[in-house]
Amino acid sequence: MKKLTTVLLISAAGLAGTVAQADTGKLLLTGGVSSIDGAAGGGLTPWAVIGSNATAGEVGATAFVTRTVTQDYALTGFGAAVGYKDRVEVSLARQDFDASPAIALNGIAAFGVTPSQHVKMDILGVKVKVAGDAVLDSDSLMPQIAIGLEYKTVSPGSLGSVLNFLGAKTEGADFYVSATKLFLGQSILVNATLRNTNANQNGLLGFGSKSPGENGRSWQPEVSVAYLLNKHWAIGAEYRAKPNNLEALGRASGLGDALAEDAWKDIFVAWAPNKNTSVTLAYVDLGRVVPGITGNRSQTGFYLSGQFAF
After folding, report:
1. For residue 3, what pLDDT is reported?
2. Residue 146 and residue 128: Cα distance in Å, rounded?
3. Would you say 287 and 264 are in contact if contact means Cβ atoms under 8 Å apart?
4. In a 3-state reduction of DSSP, which class is residue 109?
5. 212: preceding bond cis by omega (within 30 degrees)
6. CB neighbourhood size of 116 (10 A)
7. What's the start-to-end Cα distance of the chain, in Å?
């Protein structure tokens, strides 16, 4: 999966420079930006929109890079996506999670975790629009609806011993359905996503848990709201619920709430100076991320992402 993802990322990025750059009818920012998992949407959650500037009958592509920094963690991501006839989107992303600052806080040496450990995750996404059009149906109550799949593979390095203790798998898939509604007259975009998942911290801590943790899948809601200040600027907020699979295992192991998982939230501003470029800056609140290691601190910080669309 890792080698395949590398090849596909390079190929998709190359396509981004060669596809036809038609004078698209898409409005700026209504196609969303690249989420941390690579799908078009907000920073934290996918929307029903298909990424790139391509409209019906066209093929387009996007490429993005993002950086998130909180008190104890840092995450770098990059990826690319191809949009086909404003109907199908295929995305690829790689995340590099720097866990070394948190490991240094209380050193989980018993698990043999090495200093400066990074966790890497590859994500292959597919999204299909099944009904509606966020822009063309803006004068009705009909939203654009899409279904999607994100297949994730984690390379935990020496943190593999921790995942073994948790009974978490290193591969998993999220399924989701998204509905996006643009109220063009009010300059408001609203998105609701339901995600079926068993991922721990989006997959960076694996998938599922041994008993008494939760190993089954559950549906988790995600919501985004954006206000278009003008054709170049948008502000908004997102909320993404999480399954919290590991807390019961942590309590049974005498760790209290050391493995608890909280919802993710952000407040963002997006700027699109032209049809090919957008920049997103967000204040993020990831809640407690492995609070037993990070002293129960809420992980707040900033997210910066740049996207190129064709």
Report:
1. 56
2. 5
3. yes
4. helix
5. yes
6. 11
7. 27
Q: How far apart are CA 205 and CA 46, in angstroms?
A: 21
**What is the residue-wise DSSP string for 261-287?**
B--EEEEEEEEEEETTEEEEEEEEEEE
Burial 28-42 (b: 16+ CB within 10 A, else e): bbbbbbbbbbbbbbb
C-alpha of 74 from chain center: 15
What is the 3-state composition of the chain as percent helix, strand, coil, each rounded to the nearest 5?
A: 15, 45, 35
Tell me the Cα Rg of the chain: 19
CB atoms within 10 A of CB 238: 24
Please tell me the distance from the alpha carbon of residue 34 to that of residue 278, in angstroms, as a whole number: 10
Taking CA 45 as the corner, what is the angle to CA 202 and CA 175, rounded to the nearest 5 degrees? 65
- 81 Rama sector, left if φ>0, alpha if ψ -120 to 50, beta otherwise: beta
Structure tokens at 140: 């009705």
Per-residue pLDDT of the chain (310 residues; tens, 9 = 90+): 655 445 444 444 444 443 334 344 577 787 789 999 999 999 999 999 998 888 888 899 999 999 999 998 999 999 999 999 999 999 999 999 998 877 766 555 556 777 778 999 999 999 999 999 988 787 888 999 999 999 999 999 888 988 999 999 999 999 999 999 999 889 999 999 999 999 999 999 999 999 999 999 999 999 999 999 998 999 999 999 999 999 999 899 888 888 899 999 999 999 999 989 999 999 999 998 888 777 888 899 999 999 998 8
The single residue listed with the structure tokens 């609140």 is 285
Encode 96-114: b = buried (16+ Cβ within 10 Å), e = exposed: ebbbbebbeeeebeeeebe
What DSSP line would sit under 51-96, residue for residue? PSS--TT-EEEEEEEEEEEESS-EEEEEEEEEEETTTEEEEEEEEE
CA–CA dist 51, 278 (Å, integer):
12
How many angstroms separate the CA atoms of 67 and 284, rounded?
A: 12
pLDDT at residue 104 in the model: 65
